[in-house]
Structures are given as C-alpha cells and as structure tokens.
Design goal:
It is a single chain. This protein has an eight-stranded mixed beta sheet with strand order 1-2-3-4-5-6-7-8. The chain is α/β, with parallel strands linked by helices and 226 residues long. The chain starts with a strand and ends with a strand. Helix 3 links the parallel strand 4 and strand 5. The protein has a domain of 158 residues: TIM Barrel, CATH 3.20.20.70. The structure holds iron/sulfur cluster.
C-alpha cells in the first residue's frame, strides 16, 4: 500500500515507546469525521518504500517502535512490509478499524504485530452511520473478540462526535466490550479537513458523563489528556 505520510517521532502514539508513525493510503470506510480523508482514496505523492526503510535504518537505536496507521492498513497485504520493519528490530503497533479479522489474526499469529489500537466507531446498531458506509458488523465484532480474548496488548478507542453519537450509544458499546483492558474516549477535533459539516466535539462535562456511563462495564475507560 502506498505510504501517504510519515511522522518522524511520536511519544504519544505507541504506549511506552518512542516511535514513528507511517500512514498507509486507502480505506474501506468513509467516516464523516475522518481526519485523514485526503488519503482514504489513495495518494498521489507516495513516499517510496526504500526511502522509508532508509529512514528506519538511520533511526535504529533512537526509535524502538513503528505505528502503522492509515487509512486502514489491513486493506492491503501488509505482511511483507511488517516483516521488513521487524527485521530491523522495531516493535509494531497497528491502528485498525477492525474490518479484517482474518488478516489481523494471521499477522498476530505470525508475530508481526506487538500492539493493536482498534477503533470502535459506535454501538453495533449505529456502525454504518459512523463508518459512513454499509459494513459487516460481524467482522468488527470478530476483531474485537479476538483482542478481548487473546494475549496481544491492545487498546480500543472511540472518536466522540456530536451529533453523530448519543450518550446511550456508549452504554451499548460498554455492554458489547465489557471487560476490555483499555478503552479511550477521544474527543473529535474540529478541522476543515473532515468530510462532513456540522460536527463538533463534546463539551468536557458531557464527555465526562459519557465516561461514567461506560465505567461500570469497562473500568479502564479514560479520556486522553485528562
Ligand atoms: S476508518 Fe479511519 S481512515 Fe478510514 S475513513 Fe474512518 S477515520 Fe478515516
């Protein structure tokens, strides 16, 4: 998959590691609140893969992780890409929307992923609204169940968007993902780059109230930065 962008260093994206983040173009979803909408259909000026790996070699000993983000990285076959990253000694964090459980499973089994951050767009019933397209909720549930039932470290996260989310959606999310080890409620960021108009973040007090709704089901529910 084309490399649409590279963030040279991040202390935030990969828990406990100093990492870079590589953004792969292309996505099967069309979330109305997407912050990376310019790359979901592909990209024109892709960073050549050799250049990315030259960068990684120079950063050996400085960085210890690579976040593979997008877009949706699992749209394509990223195994060869991950193998090269692992051969250079970096841990891999995968950002995914959970639509490809079989690929997720295979990559994890092959030892090519060390950490997963999976987006939870909404409650199962509201998924198509937040994903911006018809989607197979069975696949999303399969990915979530794989993470909840497995040994691979992971976190789940929802971008909370007004007016697309209603407080009750988070009760359903909590019931669905009961017992998850980590769940983050990240507030929507206003930006001209998002595809839909009229979206807004939740006021801090409302987001805190939403957290209270989820806590009985997922005690480790947090709002980043708070
Ligand atoms: S899954 Fe992620 S990259 Fe794809 S459209 Fe939604 S927010 Fe954007």
């Amino acid at each position: 998959m084309p490399i649409a962008g590279l963030q040279n260093t991040t202390l935030l994206d990969y828990p406990g590691r100093v990492a870079c983040t590589v953004f792969l173009a292309g996505c099967n979803f069309r979330c109305p609140f997407c912050q990376n909408a310019e790359i979901i259909g592909g990209c024109k000026d892709a960073l050549p893969e050799e250049e990315f790996f030259r960068f990684l070699k120079r950063r050996q000993g400085v960085l210890d992780g690579v976040c593979v983000s997008g877009g949706e990285p699992l749209c394509g076959d990223i195994a060869p890409f991950l193998i090269k990253i692992k051969e250079l000694g970096f841990a891999v964090k995968l950002d995914t929307n959970g639509a490809y459980p079989e690929k997720l499973h295979k990559l994890a089994e092959a030892g090519l992923i060390d950490f997963v951050a999976m987006d939870i767009k909404s409650s199962p019933a509201r998924y198509p609204v937040l994903a911006g397209t018809a989607c197979d909720i069975g696949k999303i549930k399969e990915s979530a169940a794989f993470l909840l039932g497995g040994t691979l470290p992971y976190e789940l996260r929802t971008t909370c968007v007004k007016p697309l989310h209603r407080p009750e959606d988070f009760v359903y999310i909590g019931q669905w993902l009961q017992g998850a080890t980590a769940y983050f409620l990240q507030n929507f960021r206003q930006s001209d780059a998002v595809p839909a108009a009229g979206l807004a973040p939740f006021p801090p007090a409302e987001l805190q109230a939403i957290r209270q709704l989820v806590l009985p089901y997922i005690p480790n529910t947090n709002i980043p930065g708070e």
